[in-house]
Amino acid sequence: MNQDARRRLEELLDREIETARLLTATLAAERSALTGDSSEAVRQRADEKVRLLETLDGLENERGKLWAAAGVAPAAGVAPAAGVGAAAGVGDSSGITQRWRALLALMAGCRTANEVNGYIIHVRQHQIRQLMDIVRGAPSAIYGPNGRTFATSPRALAQA
After folding, report:
1. Domains identified in the chain and CATH numbers
2. 3-state class of 151 per DSSP?
3. Are 156 and 136 in contact (CB under 8 A)?
4. Three-state DSSP class for 109?
């Protein structure tokens, strides 16, 4: 791999890393918004997350083209950066390999944060469904003194 291609790949990986860091911060802000009471804040964080994911997707496509131009076709389970490092005649201390590992670590953290946020959304949806059932007067399961559940039919809080 020539120096120009190597430099372009390092710069691209740096942009991906910065975008992944922004995504990490956005996911943390989204988690805070999800546990708050502002639907507008949730929408704004979700919009920002989508924008960052689209940016990462574009950068990933660009990186794939750079790797292909460098003649790197990684095998399954092998980091493409390792192939680039080998093609460039450098070992694991390569800046490309270090950047690749940093990017993978950041993206793994983003995946975990996104899963946590998804769980929060799921719990909130369940709570809203329960509240709507109470408002509509739908039967609900409650616990008796012996710990068993049974359905009751309370009066509706509101009727149309």
Report:
1. 3-152 (1.20.58.300)
2. strand
3. yes
4. helix
Is the sign of the CA dihedral 9, 15, 19, 21 positive or negative? Answer: positive
Average pLDDT over residues 148-157: 61
Average pLDDT, the chain: 83
Cα distances from 111 to residues 27, 30, 36, 82, 105, in angstroms, run: 10, 13, 22, 23, 10
Gap between the Cα atoms of 93 and 124, Å rounded:
46
b/e sequence 117-156, b meaning 16+ C-beta within 10 Å: beeeeeeeeeeeeeeeeeeeeeeeeeeeeeeeeeeeeeee
Look-up of token digits 């003649």? 71
Six-digit token string for 115? 């899963």
